Amino acid sequence: MSEGRSGLVWVTGAGGLIGNACLEVAASGGAPPGPRCVGDLGLCARGLTRPEIDLTDFDAVDRLFAAERPAGILHCAARSRSPACQADPAGARLQNVEVTRHLAGLAEAIPLVFLSTDLVFDGRRDGSTGGYREDDVVNPLSVYAETKVEAEALVRRNPRHAIVRTSLNFGRSPAGPGAFNEELAAAWRAGRTVDLFVDEFRCPIAALETARRLWALLATGRGGVFHLAGSERLSRHDIGRHVADDLRRSEPGLATPLRAGSLKDYSGAPRAPDTTLDCTHLTALLGESMPSFSAWLAARRRASAR
Ligand SMILES: NC(=O)c1ccc[n+]([C@@H]2O[C@H](COP(=O)([O-])OP(=O)(O)OC[C@H]3O[C@@H](n4cnc5c(N)ncnc54)[C@H](OP(=O)(O)O)[C@@H]3O)[C@@H](O)[C@H]2O)c1
Predict the structure, then answer these.
(1) Is the CB of 230 under 6 A from ligand 1?
(2) What gap in Å lies between CA 279 and CA 305, rounded to an integer?
(3) Would you say residue 34 lies in a domain?
(4) Which of 48, 64, 199, 277 sits a CA distance of 20 to 30 A from 32?
(5) 3-class SS at 37?
(6) Within-domain flag for 192
(7) Residue 284 domain-assigned?
(8) How many Cβ atoms from other residues are within 10 Å of residue 279's Cβ?
């Protein structure tokens, strides 16, 4: 983190779930107003949201970069919804690949952390129960995942740059229901029953936990590929049950009907049955284990009851 101005770090996608969580983590470690500093890391967050700058306006991004000379970039901006990518592959490539190419070029001499996804894997290894490692073979099943694989290849060229693949993130999206928990809550509040697979597995994590580790990784200045996800392998249906339990505590009386489905009866677009991630590499680097989703929810409930 030697280049750039006084530890200023760009957080792209700061109006989204994980980018906003990065700002919250920064805010809890520093004193607003002004740049928000991350605890003792000596880094200050500078959130970039779409209303301030469209990252596909490359000239504007160049000008801002020259003016601010950030010391690092947490690149959280993306077209992150798979259906939106599927409906507009060219737009998805622009947002996810070309924006990343441009930022990685600007950030040639500084650390950049690029957010990728567990969906780079097809989740179909024979006899597997997930546990994908960083060097396992990728096989994207969707346009969204293809754009991430393509962007990863660009980011990998610079040894200062890091790729972080994460799984389902739990939290609060400033721009409205975006996180899986928010989508479930919106469905239940609208009186709908939610269908979730009992045989599709992920390793959910709170966005704040992801964000804390993104800052810590950036501060190490280490490049490479890292998996960052919850330590529990949970089915979509189990994840839904945890979210429902949690929601009913804050909204007593809310009906949270869940129906168990199976991939065996599903005939839509291809889905990855088990993309759970082995996070040993990042755990060892940061010296901190990954949180279990259910334990994290329970700890949060205890803290808010105090
Ligand atoms: N959340 C998860 O569960 C999850 C799981 C795996 C990987 N990831 C990855 O983690 C990263 C962050 O995800 P997220 O859930 O925080 O996504 P998100 O909530 O959709 O936030 C992404 C943000 O980026 C902004 N953005 C996109 N293109 C932009 C552009 N050209 N200029 C300026 N801003 C732009 C979006 O603005 P608009 O809303 O205006 O487009 C949005 O505010 C993404 O790379 C995503 O693929 C997320």
Answers:
(1) no
(2) 31
(3) yes
(4) 64
(5) strand
(6) no
(7) yes
(8) 27
Residue in the structure block whose two tokens are 């991939």: 263
Distance 78 CA to ligand 1 centre (A): 4
Domain count, the chain: 1
Counting ligand 1 atoms within 8 A of each CB, the residue from 80, 116, 203 with the most, and so the one to mutate, is 80
The residue whose CB lies within 8 Å of the most ligand 1 atoms, and thus the one to mutate among 46, 49, 50, is: 50
Ligand 1 geometric centre to CA of 92 (Å): 11
What tens digit of pLDDT does each residue of 50-66 get? Answer: 999 999 999 999 999 99
Is residue 101 in some structural domain?
yes
The model's pLDDT over 143-189, given as tens digits with 9 standing for 90+, comes to: 999 999 999 999 999 999 999 999 999 999 999 889 999 999 999 99
| Mutation test residue for ligand 1: of 10, 11, 12, 18, the one with most atoms within 8 Å of CB | 18
Domain CATH number, residue 281: 3.40.50.720
How far does the centroid of ligand 1 lie from the alpha carbon of residue 211, in Å?
13
Q: Which residues contact 164 (CB under 8 A, 6 or more apart)?
A: 113, 114, 115, 116, 214, 217, 226, 227, 228, 282
Boundaries of domain holding 124: 8-176+205-231+276-292
d(CA 232, CA 203): 6
Handedness of CA 43, 159, 291, 17 (dihedral sign): positive
20 lines ligand 1 (CB under 6 A): no
| Cβ–ligand 1 contact at 175 (below 6 Å) | yes
DSSP 72-124: EEEE--S---HHHHHH-HHHHHIIIIIHHHHHHHHTTTS-EEEEEEGGGS-S-
19 lines ligand 1 (CB under 6 A): yes
pLDDT (tens digit per residue) in 93-122: 999 999 999 999 999 999 999 999 999 999
* Model confidence pTM above 0.90: yes
Alpha helices in 115-206 (DSSP H): 143-155, 180-189
